[in-house]
Design brief:
HATPase_C_sf; phosphoprotein phosphatase activity; 37% strand; alpha+beta; BphY/WalK/GraS-like; 84 residues; histidine kinase
C-alpha cells in the first residue's frame, strides 16, 4: 500500500495505491456499489460497503472520491476543499 498526501492553496489530496495479487477485472463503477466485493475469491469476511460509505462521506464533505484500476494496480484518490 502506498499513500501520498499533497495540497494546493484551495484543495487537499490523498492518494491510495495498492497492488493486488491478481489482475482486477471489475468496472470501477461497480466497485462503488453497495455489497459489491472486488475480489469474490477472498475468504475474509466483508460486506462490500467500504467504498460506498467512503463515497457518501466524501459527498457530505463536498469532496470527491475517484477510483481507477490498471491491471493489478488499484488506486483511490480523495479530493477535499480546504476551509481555512
Amino acid at each position: 500500500m502506498y499513500i501520498d498526501i499533497w495540497q494546493t492553496e484551495k484543495e487537499v489530496f490523498v492518494s491510495f495505491k495498492n497492488i493486488s495479487a491478481v489482475e482486477l477485472n471489475i468496472p470501477v463503477d461497480e466497485l462503488m456499489e453497495r455489497f459489491k466485493r472486488g475480489d469474490e475469491s477472498r475468504s475474509s469476511e466483508g460486506n462490500g460497503l467500504g467504498l460506498a460509505i467512503a463515497k457518501s462521506l466524501m459527498e457530505i464533505q463536498e469532496g470527491l472520491l475517484s477510483l481507477s484500476i490498471d491491471g493489478d494496480l488499484f488506486k483511490a484518490e480523495i479530493k477535499l476543499n480546504r476551509f481555512f
